[in-house]
Amino acid sequence: MMLEVLSFGAGVQSTTLLFMSCDGVLPKLDAAIFADTQAEPQAVYAHLERCKAKAAKAGIELIVATAGNLRDDLVEFWGKRKSADGKRHASIPAFIKNPGESVPAPLFGENEVIVLDETRGIVRRQCTETYKIEVVERCVRKLLGLKKGQRWPVVPSVRLWLGISADEMDRMRVSSRPAVVHWYPLVEHLTVPANDLLGSRAMTRSDCLAWMESRGYERPPRSACTFCPFRSDAGWAQMKHESPDDFADACRVDRDIRQQDRSRTNRHGGIVGEPYIHSSLIPLDMVDFSAETSKYLGGMRNECMGMCGN
Description:
The chain is an alpha/beta fold. The chain has helices at 12-22, 42-57, 70-77, 127-143, 185-188, 205-214, 233-242, 244-256, 262-267; strands at residues 3-7, 31-35, 61-65, 95-97, 113-115, 120-123, 158-161, 180-183, 191-195, 199-202, 274-276. The protein has 2 domains: 3-68 and 129-214, HUPs (Rossmann fold), CATH 3.40.50; 83-127 and 225-302, no CATH class.
């Protein structure tokens, strides 16, 4: 019998799955895992506490685990692969400004930067792997009773629920671990009425919000680090207006990652060029979001595993 485990991001879709399990709409979860980057908006942490209480009443263990503080690690280790004590740095998908015509775009940081055009690149994302996926995997191993160094089982042992909805099915992925089966209940199991001709369809994010509202639940926040570069201009504007403390935190990170010693960074084989949170290559606290200055519209869909934003 497989363990039923939810990768819980504390956003709209994963909260819907957790509450559906609590209410008996979906099978009973054995556990839900929140991989904490320690850099989520304040609303996410407040919502997490409410979810803990509801899960506990339903007899579901909500595990909070972390690989460290992404905010602090990002600022301290920007541009370096590892610190003096061997801790590995994981980059966020920040935008990089070409340092000048004398440095061709491919030398931004070799394989560490995807070149967008002659003036800009975007850093290859490592934060999801280090601060989300690996954290969830370690918790799953512990739930299976595996010891350090012990191999994964070769037969399916865990069904890992992921909160990806029908409007973002391109983010669905098959598990690379034979022991872990990815399950997308919003796409593969749950349906809502469509019309008389087509019958039913899988649930979208809007359907999740409607279901939460129909049960009298508070609207969940969107889950993503305060300084995540995948945020849209509309998202930045909303944060600036509704959550000024979170926006100030993002601006502080945006400023701090540019205050590192770039010459020292380069000697360590790191990324060449100035990093920015916003694709316009303008300091975040100076961006006019109403002017639609963003030049990179991929958004959270670029986080293909469904570990963030859900």
